[in-house]
Design goal:
By secondary structure, the chain is mainly alpha-helical. It contains 5 helices and no strands. The N and C termini lie far apart (about 70 Å).
């Protein structure tokens, strides 16, 4: 069934497309603006080579978001389908998604306070619990993955992380 140009259904789809493109475009611009500011946003960052900097991976993530969002925005503006977006998935567990965002925010605050290893292990354990995996498997994954990440980034690549304020003398 075809719709006439200017029909309510077509206008609604056009408005949804503009809203989606505006949101994705905002993400692209925000990531692009934050990218050069990344080193200044990390509290207590030392002057180290880029590959040892704790700003390296956030900068890579921001670059991926900026590029991916810009490409997606262009696709939306050129008429990409809106019906295949995961956001329309009726079986999505929005409570778990929102709790995961809260967990990420807490993780960002916890790492400078409790340290990389404790913050990462607690974060992974919390995500495992949110996923409904019980206690044993998330605890095992948290310990093993934290150890592997610590060995790779802190020991291997010598990435500097802030000293945990919880363990410093006042």
């Amino acid at each position: 069934m075809t719709t006439a140009v200017g029909s309510p259904q077509e206008l609604s789809e056009r408005a949804q497309r503009r809203l989606a493109a505006g949101f994705v475009g905002f993400l692209a611009v925000a990531a692009a603006v934050l990218l050069p500011l990344t080193p200044r946003l990390i509290i207590g960052m030392k002057d180290v080579p880029y590959f040892r900097s704790p700003a390296l991976f956030p900068a890579i993530a921001l670059a991926v978001v900026a590029i991916g969002a810009a490409v997606h925005c262009m696709r939306l503006l050129r008429g990409a389908s809106l019906t295949t977006d995961d956001i329309d998935e009726p079986t999505a567990h929005w409570r778990v998604v929102l709790l995961a965002f809260v967990a990420y925010a807490i993780y960002i605050v916890a790492v400078p306070f409790a340290g990389y290893a404790i913050g990462t292990a607690a974060f992974l354990l919390a995500l495992g619990r949110l996923a409904g995996l019980g206690w044993r498997l998330p605890a095992l994954i948290a310990v093993v993955l934290t150890a592997v990440l610590y060995l790779v980034f802190v020991v291997g690549f010598k990435v500097w992380f802030p000293v945990a304020s919880l363990f410093t003398a006042a």
